[in-house]
Amino acid sequence: MRLLFGSFFTFLLAAVVGLGATWFTLTRGVAFGSLTIGAWTAWPKSGSQEIDPYAHASISRDGELPIGIGDGVAFFARADDKGHELDGRCTFTLSGMTPPARYWTVTLYNVGGGLVANAIDRHGFTSQEIIRDVDGRFTITVAPQARPGNWLPTGGIERFVLVWRLYDTPIGVATATMKEGPMPAVERKSCS
Amino acid sequence: MIRWLLWLVGGILLGGIVHLATVLAMPRAATQDAYSRLLPMTAANRMVPLPGPTAKSSIIPFMDPAFAEAVCRYDLSGGSIKLNAPVSDAYTSVTFYTRNSVAYYAINDRAAGKRAIELDLMTPAQHAQVPEEEDVTAADRLIIDSPTTTGLIVLRALAPAPTFMPMARQALAAAQCQSEPAQ
Question: Which residue segment(s) compose the domain that A23 sits in?
Answer without folding.
Answer: 1-30
